[in-house]
Specification:
There is one protein chain. Helices cover 7% and strands 45% of the residues. By secondary structure, the protein is mainly β. The protein has a single domain, classed as OB fold (Dihydrolipoamide Acetyltransferase, E2P) (Beta Barrel). It has one helix and seven strands, in the order E-E-E-E-H-E-E-E. Strands 1-3-4-7-5 form a five-stranded mixed beta barrel. The longest helix has 10 residues. A hairpin with a 5-residue loop joins strand 6 and strand 7.
Length: 142
């Protein structure tokens, strides 16, 4: 059995790189994907879905070096389910509402922004800006 997930979106913040005890590079970042459609009531619905992406090895190093908040990327990878639920990681936010995180282990990260395009984050009113705000990193308990 095999599955592949392909995402195109924008980074919600700068990537964070670290090294495993064995010396392998690993970089993590959040990607927002946007969807807009007209609902049954005729109103425009704007929807943003956030994904936590992890990339390993040489690709982790280049991702950390060249991507910034707002950079547009294409991610090819696999969904990593929570071992306890078999689905997304679920937690309770500080305000008591439920939250979920979709985890992706990236095989390929393609840079879609030109140099400098992603710097400085999202531009107000931009078609690429996410509709919902990025989840506070303090909300995710892992």
């Amino acid at each position: 059995m095999y599955h592949t997930l392909i995402l195109v979106g924008n980074l919600g913040r700068d990537p964070e790189m670290r090294y495993t005890p064995s010396g392998q590079a690993v970089t993590s970042f959040n990607v927002a994907t946007n969807r807009q459609y007209t609902g049954a009531d005729g109103n425009v619905v704007k929807e943003t879905t956030w994904f936590r992406v992890t990339v390993w090895g040489k690709q982790a190093e280049s991702t950390s070096q060249y991507l910034k908040k707002g950079s547009k990327v294409l991610i090819e990878g696999r969904l990593v389910p929570d071992l306890s639920t078999g689905g997304p990681k679920i937690w309770t936010r500080q305000d008591g509402t439920p939250g979920a995180s979709f985890e992706i282990s990236a095989n390929t990260v393609r840079f879609l922004s030109s140099r400098g395009e992603g710097e400085g984050g999202y531009q107000s009113g931009s078609a690429d800006a996410p509709y919902g705000s990025e989840p506070d990193s303090g909300e995710i308990p892992f």
